[in-house]
Write a structure and sequence with these properties.
The protein is α+β, with helices and mostly antiparallel strands. The protein has helices at 2-8, 19-27, 61-85, 95-104, and strands at residues 11-13, 35-40, 47-55, 107-109, 113-126, 137-142, 150-152, 155-160, 167-171, 178-182, 185-190, 193-203, 206-209, 211-216, 221-222. It has one domain: Jelly Rolls. 23% of the residues lie in helices and 40% in strands. Strands 1, 2, 3, 5, 6, 8, 9, 10, 11, 12 and 14 form an eleven-stranded antiparallel sheet that branches. Strands 4-15 form a two-stranded antiparallel sheet. The two termini are 33 Å apart.
């Protein structure tokens, strides 16, 4: 995973969730009490024909477990990147330490979310930054089957490289597959050392059906 993140700018984890786990996560969409906030993409001009909902505390057990257990290995990658880009800045080895950093900055709202796109839906390129504390990696997990539940709707990742044109990747996530990707920036090694590359992510237009995704963001948001 660390090698792919360094070389490609993302890493795919096939089959992170089972089909049953995907189904139980999709079912949360019908429970209004599971969410703290709903965002309509078209209303806010973030996209069209879709919405996302932030999960409320207590987080569903599966989501809480994913957040807790994915964080430590990603913190190792984040700290290796920190040595290359951010000097003395370091991230705690456990999620509880990051949550405490967020709390001190008034970032106390959970950020894991479920996204749903109908036919014609898309999500504009963006970054998920909610305050001064931001963990540099996050995860998106496919909850629908491409080709059967929907067509189109690739996950998009665009790098804005210094003194070069932008480069993009289009990633199709199978049911239960996860992609790990940078929240806002990453180091890229060149002939003169490391350079800072900024990234944004989004979702291409869904041509048919419904596409659902679980997003795991590790830093919390301000109220």
């Amino acid at each position: 995973m660390a090698t792919d993140l360094d070389e490609l700018g993302h890493a795919v984890l096939p089959g992170l969730l089972s089909s049953a786990e995907c189904a139980s996560t999709r079912a949360l969409w019908e429970d209004p009490g599971a969410f703290r906030k709903r965002v309509d993409l078209a209303r806010h001009r973030f996209g069209d024909h879709g919405e996302y909902r932030y999960l409320a505390r207590p987080l569903p057990p599966l989501v809480a477990a994913l957040r807790t257990h994915l964080y430590p290995p990603l913190a190792g990658v984040a700290n290796a990147w920190a040595e290359r880009l951010w000097g003395p800045r370091r991230f705690p080895p456990r999620l509880a330490g990051l949550a405490e950093q967020c709390r001190k900055q008034g970032q106390t709202e959970p950020t894991p979310l479920i996204l749903d796109y109908a036919e014609g839906g898309y999500n504009c390129l963006h970054q998920d930054l909610y305050g001064p504390v931001a963990f540099p990696l996050q995860v998106a997990i496919g909850l629908s089957r491409p080709g059967r539940d929907y067509q189109g709707g690739a996950f998009l990742l665009v790098e804005q490289r210094p003194r070069m044109q932008s480069r993009g990747d289009a990633i199709t996530l199978g049911l239960g597959d996860a992609v790990v990707f940078p929240t806002a920036e990453r180091p890229v090694r060149g002939a003169r050392g490391d350079s800072r590359v900024r990234l944004r992510h989004g979702v291409a237009r869904v041509r048919r059906g419904h596409r659902m995704t679980l997003g795991i963001i590790f830093h919390d948001a301000r109220t």
